[in-house]
Structures are given as C-alpha cells and as structure tokens.
Amino acid sequence: MPLDARARRLLGLIQAAAPTAGDDELMSLRRATDALADFAAPPPAVDREDLILSLPGRLLPARAYSPLPAGGAPLPGLVYFHGGGLISGGLASHDSLCAELSHTAECRIFAVDYRLGPEFRFPAAHDDARDAVNAIAGRAGELGVDLAHFGVGGDSAGGNLAAFAVTRSDAPLRLLFLLCPVLDMLAREPSRRELGSGFLIEEATMQRYWAHYKVEGLASDDARVAPLRAGGFSAYPPTRIHSAEYDPLKDEAAAFAAAIAAAGGQSQSRVYEGLIHHFYGLTAVIPSARAALAMIGADLADGLARAG
Q1: Each residue of 99-124: pLDDT tens digit?
Q2: Which of 275, 274, 270, 276 is nearest to 295 (CA)?
Q3: What is the per-residue pLDDT for 275?
Q4: CA-CA distance, 256 to 239, in Å (whole number)?
Q5: Residue 154 forms beta bridges with which residues?
C-alpha cells in the first residue's frame, strides 16, 4: 500500500527542518520533537492534574489524565513514557496523545517527565522509569488506580523505558502497552535498514540520540537498554504492540512479540498499513492515523480490562 499522501507532505515539512550535526545538534533534535506536537489533533476534554513524584534522592514531575466525569473512583491505570530518543520530548509534546488514550480507554494515564540526556545520561531515564512506576503504584489509593488493572506503556524510546520498568519494578503490572517501541538501540533488524531514511525517524537520528544518552562502556545491545536482546521473555505480562508499515522499528516490535509468545507469554502485535513512525501523534494531518489511534485506545481499554 503506498504511503499516505498527507504523510508524504508531513515528511517534507519535517525533513526540511531535520537536525544537522554541529554545536546546535541537541537543540535541533529537541525542536524537531517539540514541533511534532503541532500535528496532533486537539485533545478531548479530560481532567489533568500535575503531580510531583517523590523518588529516591530526587523529585520528578508527572501529569495524571482522567476521563470525565471520573471523580475519585478507582479506575484502570497506565504509567506512560513519552518518546523522543531519551533526549527530547516531555509532558507538552505528548499531551494530546495521553489525553486521547485516557478518554478513549476510560482509564487514568500517568505521563512521567523523566530526566533526559545528555544532561542526565544512562541510567537516569531508566532509573526514573522503574522508580516512577513504583511511586505511582504506592499511591494507587490516593490517585484513584485499581491495581488489579494497572499497566505500563510508552512510545518509541518511551517504549524502551516501559519494557525496562515492567521487569524491574516492584509494582503489580498486568499489561505492557507499546507504540512503535525502540527495543534495540541500533539497527539489527531488516526494517531498520530498509526504512532507515525518508520515513520520519531515520537511523542517523537514532545514532545521534544514542550518542547523547549512552555512557562509556555501555554497549547498544546491553540488556538494560535493548529488551529484544535481553532474554527473560517469560517475565513479561500480557503485551500489546502497535506499529506501522513504514516504521523502521516494526521488525523489532514483531520479533519482541514473537519472543514473548515463544516463551509462553501473551502478546499481540498490530501493524497499521500506510502509516509511519509516530502516526499516533500526527492525527491532525493524517485521517487514517486518527482512526488508528481510536483503535489503539480501544485496545488499551481491552488490555486493561482483561488484566488482573
């Protein structure tokens, strides 16, 4: 199926402002992530509450999204980690997406504003993911979360953090929910090579992200940053993954789902035809992406309902 014509126009806009190497590379990468927020459809009406998570030795901002009219009644909950290569993005860049997921799935979404590289390199974001999940689970009663229907999720690099947190936190996580996740830091699967240029997220950009987050001695296939290479797939809870036909990360998503199933776990993987990486955040310009996001929200509702 040919790439959606609107998606091609979007690619032209993004590539015209593509980051280039140099002293301003980090700022350019961050601007590119922030600019994507303009391509999201206006968010539905939900309740937002900014939080401060008290983690060991540090405080971390977060934002809770609740459907209307939720009140304080216990609801299913999902801790969510945004994409952005572990060096960009934040609460603002993924606000519309989190609101949409909360509204459609009728659950509470907890977006975590984790620390970013290169100011905070590995393992800062990964430690934040683990500790934030524990902190939110520990406040479940206060935050109106039903821990029998509680999961963790994320998109792109945030999906990497979610996969890390689900096997290392102490919380009773019943669902892993991933959108176009990074499960291997650098290219090893065929789609990373075949779609590594011209499809929004490029392998050269992935390498720049990695350079800004890694520390000396940390290999890109280290189990702590490459869940696909880590093994231990039987430890994952039921897992649902959504990716796109023209997403360079689609093969690692499929391989991860297959590995969980082969280990005796539950996994589902869906690929959306004609769409690109981050399609769930491009709903203002790609009609098929908006329809896909509605299906993602429905799948999240089903996954949380079946948890427990």
Answers
A1: 999 999 999 999 999 999 999 999 99
A2: 270
A3: 96
A4: 10
A5: 81, 178
* Per-residue DSSP letter, 44: P
Judged against a pLDDT cut of 80, whether residue 135 lies above it is answered with yes
Tokens standing for 199?
């499809």
What's the pLDDT at 23?
Answer: 47
Look up residue 96 and give its two tokens: 């519309």
Residue 242, amino acid: H
| pLDDT tens sequence across 205-233 | 999 999 999 999 999 999 999 999 998 99
Query: What amino acid positions are annotated as catalytic residues?
Result: 156, 247, 277
Length of the chain: 308
| Cβ-contact 255, 191 below 8 angstroms | no
Kindly give the interhelix angle for 95-105 and 287-306, rounded to the nearest 10 degrees. 50
> Could you tell me the strand order of the sheet in which 267-276 lies?
47-55, 58-66, 108-112, 75-81, 145-155, 175-179, 239-246, 267-276
Tell me how far apart the terminal alpha carbons of the chain are, to the nearest angstrom: 38
Q: Which residues of 225-251 are buried (b: 16+ CB within 10 A; e: fewer)?
A: bbbbbbeebeebbbbbbbbbbbbbbbb
In angstroms, rounded to a whole number, what is the distance separating the alpha carbons of residues 273 and 232?
31
Structure tokens at 17: 């402002």
CATH code for residues 5-306: 3.40.50.1820
pLDDT over 90 for what percent of the chain? 84
Tell how many helices (H) and how many strands (E) occur in the chain: 11, 8
Ranges of beta strands (E only) in the chain are 47-55, 58-66, 75-81, 108-112, 145-155, 175-179, 239-246, 267-276
How large is the average pLDDT for residues 30-52? 94
Domain boundaries, the chain: 5-306
pLDDT of residue 9: 60
SS (H, E, C) 63-83: EEEECCCCCCCCEEEEEEECC
Q: Are 103 and 46 in contact (CB under 8 A)?
A: yes
